[in-house]
Structures are given as structure tokens and as C-alpha cells.
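Protocol step 4 of 5: obtain the predicted structure for the target chain.
Materials: sequence only (see below). No template structures provided, no constraints applied. The aim of this step is simply to have a reference model before the mutagenesis design in step 5. Sequence pasted as it appears in the construct record:
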Amino acid sequence: MTDMMQKNDLVLVTGITGYMATWVAKDLLEKGYRVRGTYRSEGKLPFIKNLLPGIELVKADLNGDAGWEDALTDVKWLFHVASPQAVATESKRTETAIAGIDNIFKFALKSPTLKKILLTSSEAAIAYGKQNKHIYTENDWTNADAKGLDDYMKSKTLEERRAWQLVNDAQVNTSTWLWLPSTRRL
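Step 4 output (C-alpha cells):
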């Protein structure tokens, strides 16, 4: 995707206080893009500001609408990295992951400046729940209803499935910039 991006384009990275989002933002800043990051808690902000000089920060929570319109203002590229983590302190992982997709995409799919969404996927979304395969393709999904499936695997699977549902729904996705054939690349 970076072959379409221009230096100084504004990029939004969700979940900026998370491990993966921090690395994505660092790489984008080093390549000359302007980066805005979303956060839900201010606890790690001093560390983030020190680690990522020049980053713009906007408070937004996956569980609500507040902040997402501001976060997406003038953004050309959206890297949706935020997701409830597989840690004991996270509760309602699946509900939060799905609410996050609904809340972010509600604004992203109507944005007049957005050109592309990159959704961070996970092997958790394709490789679990009674599958006995060695090679997986974009047609494979974790069985979210499988007995004993970890909540993190379920949340990642249902989050990504919801994203695809919204993007491929012509009544929800009225954007002229995002059309998806039946593949798993956003």
C-alpha cells in the first residue's frame, strides 16, 4: 500500500498505545508520513510522545462514537490496529472488537478524504476451531462457534468478518474509493 502513499499524507493508526500500532506508526513517521494515533487511556501517552515525536493524538474508544470523526478528519490512509488483547485485564473482547469495527467504519466509509483501510488481521481469524490444515488461504476462517475456542480467537474472527460484511454492504459502504472483490485484502 505504501507505493500509493505520498510523503506528508495523513495516516491514522488506531490503538497507538499498543505494541503493534507503535511499530506501525514509527515506521510511517520514519518514511515521512504524518501520523495521527488514537488512544483510549492517557497512561502511556508520555511514553508514546517520547517514542514517536511529531505524532498527533486523538482520544477515541472502540466502544463508542466519540472521537472517531475527529480522528478521521483529513486522513487518507487508515491502519486499524486497535483490538482487545488476549490479556486477563481485557473483558468483553468480542463485543468490543465488533463495536470497534462498527464505530470506526461508520465514519471511515463516509470519509471524503480516505483512500484505503488496512485492517490488521491475525492467524487467530483463520486457523482455529477444528481445522486440521497445513495451508490456509483467504477463504479460511476460524470456526467461531467451536467448543473451547479462546475468546481472543473468536473476537479476531468475528471482528474481521464484520469488517468484510460492512465493506461489502452497498447500503453501508457508499464510498466511491473502496470496492472489494471477494478477497481478504481491504
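Step 4 remarks: The radius of gyration is 16 Å. Residues 180-186 have pLDDT under 50 and may be disordered.
Proceed to step 5.
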